[in-house]
Amino acid sequence: MTKEEIIKPENLVYKKPTLMNDNAMHYCPGCSHGVVHKLIAEVIEEMGMEDKTVGISPVGCAVFAYNYLDIDWQEAAHGRAPAVATAIKRLWPDRLVFTYQGDGDLACIGTAETIHALNRGENITIIFINNAIYGMTGGQMAPTTLVGMKSSTCPYGRDVKIHGYPLKMTEIAAQLEGTAYVTRQSVQSVPAIRKAKKAIRKAFENSMNGKGSNLVEIVSTCSSGWKMTPEKANKWMEEHMFPFYPLGDLKDKE
Question: Whole-angstrom Cα distance, residue 99 to residue 127?
Answer without folding.
Answer: 6
